[in-house]
Design a protein that fits this description.
Layout (H helix, E strand, L loop, with lengths): L7 H13 L8 E5 L3 H18 L4 E2 L2 E2 L2 E7 L6 H14 L3 E6 L12 H19 L4 E3 L4 H13 L13 E4 L12 E4 L7 H10 L16 H12 L2 H32 E4 L4 E5 H6 L4 H16 L8 H11 L7 E3 L2 E5 L7 E6 L10 E2 L7 H22 L16 H10 L5 H42 L4 E2 L3 E4 L3 E7 L5 H6 L15 H6 L10 E6 L2 H12 L13 H6 L7 H24 L4 H4 L3 E4 L5 E4 L4 E2 L4 E7 L10 E2 L2
Parallel strand pairs: 1-4, 1-6, 4-5, 6-8
Antiparallel strand pairs: 2-3, 7-8, 7-23, 9-10, 10-13, 11-12, 12-13, 14-16, 15-18, 16-17, 17-22, 18-19, 19-20, 20-21
Helix pairs in contact: 1-2, 2-6, 5-7, 5-8, 5-14, 7-14, 8-10, 10-11, 13-14, 17-19
């Protein structure tokens, strides 16, 4: 394999961006490769950087150590598989291990109106999954400066807020839809080519004598991005390109400032209950500070996203409603928005608000199951690398931190005003302002027309996705763990008793332990009230009011012949109470007393949790709906069974790390 050669200026620019991202040559890196000039140039630069910095340690056999190319075959057009094989060969010739990943479309391929979005979502999901499989914490993608310009026009035409005009982050932490472990830090999506334009990337490929493919869908004018790209090419002069990038840079400075300001607000005004997954916002403290409207909107969006664990950020009318709600403090009413239930915090006289997950929201989805491994050595290594990279990237970003008086567009509330303000600040000329306004108006009309044409198809696709998420619910088997609602890790299995009095409660011989494959075998001989069965499948649901009433009944009742069901009436529950007449019945009652004791402890814990927050807690039930355990308050119906949960949200409170330099 002959080493590729590129201009020193290109190599140094790339190496500098990797340093700014906090990435070092020894880190494991994946590259998303389409085969176009953009991603092939990224492969060339990344391979040169690794080899140059690591020297003789760079190679393992014929491949560069810690560098993997990932080619996604969407399977949406004829010949895509053959093209993927060609791309794999070219990437391998650079010394990069290269895998082809296949997209699956179980409900059929998406139609035209939803094609690009669906392909992008599927692509990123499969890339994230493969990175996780390989214990890789960094994924490089080949977005460049021209892509940023296209996105600026697209978002202007869609009336995006000024923060949205910042485009794509340089570094951002992205998370899977659900995690297989408790220590998932997601991956870092890094765009090291944002300082390069398209012509630069063509030159890099040419200098390295590297071929690339041209995606025919890029010529399809049915897609808005392709139309914008064509218009920009017709308009672009050197001055126009530079001024557009200056405008984007100003918006990025604002976005970076908002992130820092929101971090400070979170620390000062929000407290999160780490056991039960709800937050309390101190509205009085929030308004003691003079908070800019843009900062307040961003802050509230992050808070709602954290509680709801929605994949996409909250924006638009939901934020407007919440701002109006808290501006009328002391708060007296309740509000349900964006998957969250909001109400005055108990005892706060409306000066604090409770932000809980809303079980009645359309975002509520069923639990997903993934068995946890006993060893996380590879995953923990990736987590450690991510932490190191974030720390290094933050250190670089902090050196560029700016004061509020230096931030452009801080008082701008509409995207239309950004262009005018950009001209006033000297970022763009009158000519560039006129061209961008003309392009914005043209694309707005095109998008409005396309929106009407595609509305029915997009609704069909979204409904298909929503319906699938609602009906998918896998059982949780004995010894398994799962991620529930992207918020709680839940597991159940056998418990080991070290307290002699607990063993004596159920009459078991001292030292007896439940066999992993024989659930509650001792209780099946001695306790007719235990609902646990061998190899039983269980399900998760949210807590209901009937659950805490049921706990009260357990305290009142001593069970003998049958287990109390949530479907039984009070009269039926009371008729189940009998008195022991022999030694065997006494053992049965002792077990019932154990469960009643656990119910008393659970109710005591439950009283410390606000009622709206209770409804978001996971509850373990069997196929008949009988309650088996409420792990958040340490209740189980059987002393040999342990049910565990921890609040482990997929998206952290501040939305994960991002850099906008």
């Amino acid at each position: 394999m002959a080493a590729a050669r590129v201009s020193q200026s290109y190599y140094e620019a790339f190496a500098k961006r990797m340093e700014m991202a906090g990435i070092r040559p020894h880190h494991k890196i994946a590259i998303g490769v389409s085969g176009g000039a953009d991603s092939m140039a990224l492969c060339i630069l990344a391979s040169l950087w690794k080899c140059s910095e690591l020297g003789t340690d760079a190679k393992i056999s014929d491949h560069i150590n810690g560098l993997v190319g990932l080619v996604v075959d969407h399977g949406l057009r004829a010949g895509s598989g053959i093209e993927a094989n060609h791309v794999q060969t070219r990437v391998s010739s650079l010394g990069i291990q290269c895998d082809i990943l296949q997209c699956e479309w179980p409900n059929g391929p998406p139609k035209q109106g939803h094609l690009q979005e669906a392909a992008r979502n599927a692509r990123y999901k499969i890339l994230k999954d493969k990175c996780k499989q390989y214990h890789i914490g960094v994924l490089l993608v080949a977005h460049h400066a021209d892509d940023q310009a296209e996105l600026l026009v697209l978002r202007l035409s869609r009336h995006s807020g000024v923060a949205g005009l910042a485009g794509m982050a340089f570094v951002c932490q992205v998370f899977s839809d659900y995690s297989g472990t408790c220590a998932d830090h997601g991956i870092l999506l890094v765009r090291p080519l944002l300082c390069f334009n398209k012509d630069d990337l063509y030159k890099i490929c040419e200098e390295a004598d590297q071929k690339w493919v041209e995606d025919p869908t890029n010529q399809n004018m049915a897609f808005a991005r392709n139309r914008i790209r064509k218009f920009l090419r017709n308009l672009q002069s050197c001055d126009f390109k530079n001024e557009v990038q200056a405008l984007i840079s100003g918006c990025r400075r604002l976005r970076a400032f908002l992130n820092i300001a929101c971090d400070h607000l979170m620390k000062e005004t929000v407290s999160v209950n780490e056991d039960y997954g709800y937050a309390v916002l101190d509205v009085q403290k929030l308004f003691v500070r003079t908070v800019n409207d843009l900062c307040l909107s961003r802050f509230l969006a992050l808070l709602l996203q954290f509680i709801s664990q929605r994949y996409k950020p909250i924006r638009g009318r939901a934020i407007e409603m919440l701002i109006k709600y808290i501006c009328n403090y002391p708060c007296k009413s309740s509000l349900t928005i964006a998957g969250c239930y909001i109400c005055p915090a108990p005892g706060s006289k409306g000066l604090k608000i409770l932000v809980c997950f809303s079980c009645d929201s359309p975002q509520s989805i069923s639990s997903r199951i993934s068995t946890f491994e006993n060893s996380y050595s590879g995953e923990m290594q990736a987590v450690s690398e991510i932490d190191d990279i974030i720390s290094a990237s933050q250190e670089f970003s902090n050196s560029l931190r700016q004061f509020e008086t230096d931030v452009p567009f801080l008082l701008v509330d509409k995207s239309e005003t950004v262009l005018t303000e950009g001209k006033n600040l000297g970022l763009i000329s009158e000519s560039t302002l006129s061209r961008l306004l003309l392009l914005k108006d043209k694309m707005s009309k095109d998008l409005d027309n396309k929106h009407e044409d595609n509305k029915a198809e997009e609704n069909r696709w979204e409904n298909q996705i929503t319906d699938r998420s609602v009906v998918e619910q896998e059982p949780l088997l004995f010894g398994q763990s799962c991620y529930f609602m992207n918020r709680f890790v839940v597991s159940w299995g056998r418990s080991k008793y070290s307290k002699e009095h607990e063993i004596r409660h159920i009459g078991a011989p001292d030292g007896t332990l439940l066999d992993q494959n024989h659930s509650c075998s001792w209780l099946h001989r001695k306790c007719s009230s235990c609902p646990i069965q061998i190899n039983m499948a269980t399900w998760l649901r949210h807590m209901k009011e009937a659950d805490w009433i049921y706990l009260s009944h357990l305290i009142e009742c001593r069970l003998t012949r049958k287990h109390v069901s949530l479907k039984e009436t009070d009269e039926e529950i009371m008729t189940s109470i009998t008195h022991p007449t022999d030694q065997e019945a006494q053992k049965t009652i002792s077990c019932a007393e154990y469960v009643a004791g656990k119910a008393r402890e659970a109710l005591a814990r439950l009283k410390t949790i606000p009622i709206p927050a209770r409804r978001a807690l996971p509850v373990l039930v069997n196929g008949q709906g009988t309650l088996l355990g409420i792990p958040s308050i340490c209740f189980t119906c059987c002393p040999f069974i342990s049910v565990f949960t921890s609040f482990n949200p997929r998206v952290p409170l501040r939305g994960g790390y991002s850099s906008w330099i």
